[in-house]
Amino acid sequence: MPSPPDFSAAELAERFGLQLHGNGAERVVGVGTLAGAEPGQLAFLANPRYRSQLGQTRASVVVMRADDAVDHSGTALLASDPYTAFAKLAALFAQLPQREPGIHPSADIHPSTTIAADAHVGAFCSIGARSRIEAGAVIGPGCVIGEDCVVGAGSELIARVTLVTRVRLGARCLLHPGAVLGADGFGLAMDGGHWIKVPQLGGVVLGNDCEIGANTTIDRGAIEDTVLGDDVRLDNQIQVGHNARIGSHTAMAGCSAVAGSARIGNYCLIGGGVGVLGHLEICDRVVITAMSLVTSSIREPGEYSSGTPLMDNRSWRRNAARFKQLDRIARRLPAIRDE
Amino acid sequence: MPSPPDFSAAELAERFGLQLHGNGAERVVGVGTLAGAEPGQLAFLANPRYRSQLGQTRASVVVMRADDAVDHSGTALLASDPYTAFAKLAALFAQLPQREPGIHPSADIHPSTTIAADAHVGAFCSIGARSRIEAGAVIGPGCVIGEDCVVGAGSELIARVTLVTRVRLGARCLLHPGAVLGADGFGLAMDGGHWIKVPQLGGVVLGNDCEIGANTTIDRGAIEDTVLGDDVRLDNQIQVGHNARIGSHTAMAGCSAVAGSARIGNYCLIGGGVGVLGHLEICDRVVITAMSLVTSSIREPGEYSSGTPLMDNRSWRRNAARFKQLDRIARRLPAIRDE
Amino acid sequence: MPSPPDFSAAELAERFGLQLHGNGAERVVGVGTLAGAEPGQLAFLANPRYRSQLGQTRASVVVMRADDAVDHSGTALLASDPYTAFAKLAALFAQLPQREPGIHPSADIHPSTTIAADAHVGAFCSIGARSRIEAGAVIGPGCVIGEDCVVGAGSELIARVTLVTRVRLGARCLLHPGAVLGADGFGLAMDGGHWIKVPQLGGVVLGNDCEIGANTTIDRGAIEDTVLGDDVRLDNQIQVGHNARIGSHTAMAGCSAVAGSARIGNYCLIGGGVGVLGHLEICDRVVITAMSLVTSSIREPGEYSSGTPLMDNRSWRRNAARFKQLDRIARRLPAIRDE
């Protein structure tokens, strides 16, 4: 273990180009929340709704906007975006386990693989024919990597990740446990009353700096590839169907799903539990709120939603029953044209 | 294998403090459903809707309420709550595989771990630095346990469970295959057009007697911990975001999701596919029906719902189209105030 | 690796009983999309919406309907169902990895198992007492198979699949990574303020030719079995509760969920993210559109839906607020009777 981190407020201000307010000699050895921090910890104030906690905080140093610091008696680091500044500061206090270069003796590696000398391959990993593990990549314990895969430089598979076949990851990707990339897309054709499988001959391609959550699944393409751009961030338990395309810098929250051949643009924010039907296009900078279903293409940036509000069950039953009559209700009224 | 279970109705009545109706000498060697049981099997009648099956059942003994037994000619065990009584009785007939104390020779264990002498660690398990496996715990095959984790006394990880880091389980917890606890929470900050990761420095803490379903994911906290109380029961494929808190005795059905920093009270029942947005509070004894979305805090116990009823697709299309006009429809009418 | 596939259009026409249009000497060495194919590749035209791409395609041979070929100058294979024909043709170009018969030396196999001489068991697999792996079955790396399981002839577990206990697969089933079959059903009874577990004494039975997607979970039954018929096709991240029954040839899209004891008929198509409540029956040939919730039994074949359309968030908020008033709105109008 490296020696535990210990910085002065002044050192932190200088290292991250932040303005110092108060006592630069304050020591910071860890991080905490405004409400829960102890002396020696760094906290942050980004959401005004927590401003009231500032008076009581025991944090030695707080990251905040300049205007929040005006009448703050304690020590502060001033940032235009305190949350982003905190994210960078907090990284100093994340003590990540060392993954030494080398291949664990238990690993089962096909002779035709290429593994960089400084890559790490953990216990009980399987790596198949013609796959390549690039410089500094980390393959945690229990991962299965099939044929013709690439794990780009500095990418990490935490543990128990599966890359089935023809999965190519860019640099610095981070895949969490249970993620399955490159499984067969769900391609079926009916033939005389039973299903036959449509061979899934494509692969999966991720750009650089993508993050894939725990138990998320990304199927490989039927003919061409399933493609994620750069800096795509997928939370846990997301399903991405074959031949889907997700643009760079798009983030999707947990349990959302993208059906086959859908295309999502850049800088989109997809809420938790959202569904996107197949073969649709969503343009750049679209926000979809939680548990909405996207049933047609979206061509204008903006925020979109579907669903109904939560109610006590008795009221909900009454109103939901009327939903079944809604068209007849409307027809009782003078014609209403769609705007 | 132990000798197969074989009890008389009288023995079962005495062991579980139930009143015997009929022939105490009836033998019971297994369990069945009212409709499907064979002689020698124990069945139960809890739901009145199955009462009609009582006449035809071939079960040797049936657990039921006293009033259901009045004109029942067969042998019965009388319980105020037949389902709970059956749950206890059936446990006698569950022949669970033995997991002998000891560490499988293939397991990869960091020298700094502490493993109780009577714990079981199965094949192809990895256990990281400073983790502790307490008395009688069972770690099934293919589990990965990272750094600084605790598996409490008598807890069992069935197989292929991952505890990423700083995951602390109480006593008698049961984790099903594919569960991932302690993966990074989904914390991102935008910095000059690309995402940077907010370090996830907290852990996951479970109380005693929790059950976590197959492929369920519980992320670790950003600064403080993600916390489940005692006797929390999570079904399969549930997602729990970082810093969420779930109260004791709360049960959640499959595919539900709790976003970051949400707090759910004690004795709540969360239906399948339900979504709970981040930073909300749900008080004790709240029931949420299946596939509802909770978008604001709930302060009163009771049952809550959202969504619309299922209809044939043609009717649904007509009504759903009118939903887009609902505000204009309402404005045609004399003002309707929220009650 | 076998020699790469190379066929003439005439050979393909003959092998699959398709009518040849144009030059039977055209060589086909792979497949592509109409838009993306290169010379030497086979493409298909099934969806009329892509008909315009036919003029520009560089594919050497295209599978299409006879009427689409009338004024097509290139080479074509004529099929009444081009998609199904393509599925069969494309299989010729799928170069699947060889899985040699035999048991990997690292595998941990209970002495009481039965493993066919020509079956394949990969690295880091665990197989428990009394389980049977039949002729030609393939168990990929990192699978865990518990007690009393059967993997039928020619079935394949790609990698990291778990069969917990009493799981019996028919012939030619295909299970994708992360799938968990036979975990405890979610059976709980309240006893004096805390939950007790209802023992899950049943198993899981799959017919022949079933496909189970990545990270899909199918719980074992409480007393009797959870049962899937023949040719059932489940996409990724589907949850099937204990004692559910799914009829033959039914296909379910990703992230759908079937609660305990529900029965789904034959030839049903269940959309992505659909929920089916427990103890319901759905008859044969029912289609449920994406993210609908089935709250009562369905006795008539046809297409069913629930939910509301996607709107810009501002309009949605206005309309959703009115949903809370819907019953009062309706009561302002002359009585509307359900049709």
UniProtKB/TrEMBL annotation, chains A, B, C:
Pfam families: Hexapep (PF00132), Hexapep_2 (PF14602), LpxD (PF04613). Residues 28-92 form the UDP-3-O-[3-hydroxymyristoyl] glucosamine N-acyltransferase non-repeat region domain. Keywords: Acyltransferase, Lipid A biosynthesis, Lipid biosynthesis, Lipid metabolism, Repeat, Transferase. SUPFAM superfamilies: Trimeric LpxA-like enzymes. One of its GO terms (molecular function) is N-acyltransferase activity. Pathway: Bacterial outer membrane biogenesis; LPS lipid A biosynthesis. It is an enzyme of class 2 (transferase). GO terms for biological process: lipid A biosynthetic process. It comes from the Bacteria. GO terms for cellular component: membrane. Its EC number is 2.3.1.191. It catalyses: a UDP-3-O-[(3R)-3-hydroxyacyl]-alpha-D-glucosamine + a (3R)-hydroxyacyl-[ACP] = a UDP-2-N,3-O-bis[(3R)-3-hydroxyacyl]-alpha-D-glucosamine + holo-[ACP] + H(+). InterPro entries: Hexapep (IPR001451), LpxD (IPR007691), Trimer_LpxA-like_sf (IPR011004), UDP_GlcNAc_AcTrfase_non-rep (IPR020573). The active site is at 242 (proton acceptor). The keyword Transcription regulation does not apply. Homotrimer. Catalyzes the N-acylation of UDP-3-O-acylglucosamine using 3-hydroxyacyl-ACP as the acyl donor. Is involved in the biosynthesis of lipid A, a phosphorylated glycolipid that anchors the lipopolysaccharide to the outer membrane of the cell. Belongs to the transferase hexapeptide repeat family. LpxD subfamily. This is UDP-3-O-acylglucosamine N-acyltransferase. It comes from Montanilutibacter psychrotolerans. The lineage of its organism: Bacteria, Pseudomonadati, Pseudomonadota, Gammaproteobacteria, Lysobacterales. The gene is lpxD.
